[in-house]
Amino acid sequence: MAGKDPIIMREKDEMRNWTRSMRAQGHTIGFVPTMGYLHQGHLSLIKEAHKHADRIVVSIYVNPGQFSPNEDLSTYPCDFQGDCQKLKAVPGGVDVVFNPDNLYAAYGNSSLGSERNGEMREGRLVSCVENKWGMGHETWVRVENLEKGLCGKSRPVFFRGVVTVVTKLFNIVDPDVAVFGKKDYQQWKIIERMVRDLDFGIKVIGSEIVREQDGLAMSSRNVKLSPDNRQRALSISRALSRAKFDAENGQLNCHELINAAIPKIREAGGRVDYAEIVEQESLEPVETINKPVVFCVAAWFGDVRLVDNMEIDIN
């Protein structure tokens, strides 16, 4: 029920023991991994999880493993208390918020605390993601083909970090169901493949994109947009919507659809990272729409990189 205070857990063993206890009582566990700064898109994932499980865990953890050296994870927005209030108000509630200090801490000691810059404190290693002392985290999980295209082209370490931390979280939380948003379409498909290939007993569900009333896909990064760029960013969803409309009305040439969409974004002041129409499962580019595809776009407005997509199925 709404208004339930979630249990805040920070230790891995505490989280594991809770799951084992719940499962021994016959409950099923739904899991929504997040990096916090929650919005309605995140909350929709929790609502979806309630359809598939009767106990819900949400993780809030800013993962250093998916940031490259030129990306400053210390600037990632954070509002843990605000997040907890939002979770408390979700219909059906959330049972546990898993908020570990540091999943990359040396020797598994997460009690050392979380320091996003990955340095030493009082002579002790706090974050050991590829640290210069040779004691770094060196076991990584990769989905080699699916991670190469789209976002993987400009962010080469991103999916290695995402898949590794999701694997860690799956091993700690041990859910029956995990829900991911389709806004990060490539991420969702990569996690699906990882679960399949590594024989995790977890059902991965993709939840539909939640948009603002004007069409902008909800994202924690939207708060960093200036008012002007916030309006300009609408060009992404408008270009995608037009492409879908044209495809459903007979324009099946992907080259033509892409070449019509890119100028709309550029004219609005966006710097297009990529705009590609790919097959929904393999994420391989297609030339003609004769199967279910997804039109994926990433573009910069100011110093904010936004991703969006739209599924197209003409059958």
**CATH fold naming of the largest domain:** Rossmann fold
Write down the domain tally.
2
What's the mean pLDDT score? 90
β-strand number = 11
Cα Rg: 20 Å
- Please name the CATH architecture of the largest domain: 3-Layer(aba) Sandwich
- Helical amount: 25-40%
Low-confidence stretches: 107-128
Query: What would CATH call the homologous superfamily of the largest domain?
Result: HUPs
How would a crystallographer describe the biggest sheet? 6 strands, parallel
What gross morphology would you assign?
A: globular
Coarse structural class: alpha/beta
| SSE ordering | EHEHEHEEEHHEHEHHHEEE
For the biggest β-sheet, the strand order reads 1-4-3-2-7-8
Organism: Capsicum annuum
Pathway: Cofactor biosynthesis; (R)-pantothenate biosynthesis; (R)-pantothenate from (R)-pantoate and beta-alanine: step 1/1
Keywords: ATP-binding, Cytoplasm, Ligase, Nucleotide-binding, Pantothenate biosynthesis
Family: Belongs to the pantothenate synthetase family.
Characterise the protein shown here.
By secondary structure, this protein is α/β, with parallel strands linked by helices. The chain folds into two domains: 5-102 and 131-205, Rossmann fold (3-Layer(aba) Sandwich), CATH 3.40.50.620; 220-310, Pantoate--beta-alanine Ligase, Chain: A,domain 2 (2-Layer Sandwich). It has helices at residues 12-24, 40-50, 80-88, 151-154, 158-173, 185-197, 227-232, 234-248, 254-267; strands at residues 7-9, 29-34, 55-60, 96-98, 120-121, 124-125, 177-181, 203-207, 271-279, 293-301, 304-312. The strands form three sheets. It has a six-stranded parallel β-sheet, with helices on both faces. A three-stranded antiparallel β-sheet has the order 9-10-11. Strand 10 and strand 11 (304-312) form a beta hairpin. Helix 5 (158-173) packs across helix 6 (185-197) and helix 8 (234-248) packs antiparallel against helix 9. The longest helix has 16 residues, at 158-173. The radius of gyration is 20 Å and the shape is globular. The two termini are 40 Å apart. The model is unreliable at 107-128 (pLDDT under 50).
